[in-house]
Amino acid sequence: MGNIASSSTKLAEKCPMLEKSELPLVANSFRMASKNSDKCKEEDLMKFWGSQMDPRLAQYITNFLFGPLGTRVGFVELPRFAELYVYTVRGTGDERINVLLASLGQTPESESTEIAYPLIKEYVEAVVSSYMRAIRLEGGPEFKSWESRGFRIVKECIQKLAESLVYDVVQQGTQKVTRADAERWLSKNPIFLKMLEHVFSHLYNYRIVKNSSDDKRKDDSEDGKGKKKESVPQQEVVLHAMLPLCEGLQYMPDYPAFTDLSQMLFINANLPTAQQNKWRFLFSSQIHGESFSTLLGRILDQGPTVVIVEDSNGHIFGGYATESWAVGPNYVGNDTSFLFTLRPKMRCFPATGYNDHYQYLNLHQQTMPNGMGMGGQHDYWGLWLDSEYGVGESSESCTTYKGYFQLSATKKFTVRNVEVWGVGVKPVKETDSEDAGSRSILDGNEDSKAMLKMSGREQYSDGYREEPRD
Question: For the chain, which terminus, N or C, has the lower number of CB atoms within 10 Å?
Answer without folding.
Answer: N
